[in-house]
Specification:
With 155 residues, the protein is mainly β. It is built from one helix and eight strands, in the order H-E-E-E-E-E-E-E-E.
Amino acid sequence: MRLPGVMLLVLGIATAAPARAEFEAGYAHVDEIDGEISHALVGSWTRPIERWNDYDVHSEVVGGWIMGRSDFPHPDDDDIFFAGAGLRKYFGGFFLGAGVVVLDHKNTLLSSTGQFVTSMGYGRKHWVIAFRHISNANTAGNNDGENLLSLSYRW
């Protein structure tokens, strides 16, 4: 099953989410590399972890699409799809997060299909602004990673 199929499966499971679960969908500006920026679409499904209610920790399922940089050589001009899971720790409206994601293929910026994702952000009512960094921490060759600054709508 290709990654977009997996993402549809995750979305289907998430639609049967418990009442306290939240969805986020948004646009991300992806960092500039060699004079060219990229864009992404990101989505998350978060819900509180009951046994960690006192600590305000939530589980997160994340997915997205990073658009290729058209002036870059192959494979950096290809779109990349990713999906993964992690945890978020909230401090009022602020949060920190960490997890793992799987890519549908690698390129020179993301040198393996397995990556770590770290995030921090702030949410208020229906809006969330977040910064995410996707990288394998050079565990599988040189890996610059990608930085995403996103604005999402939450419901």
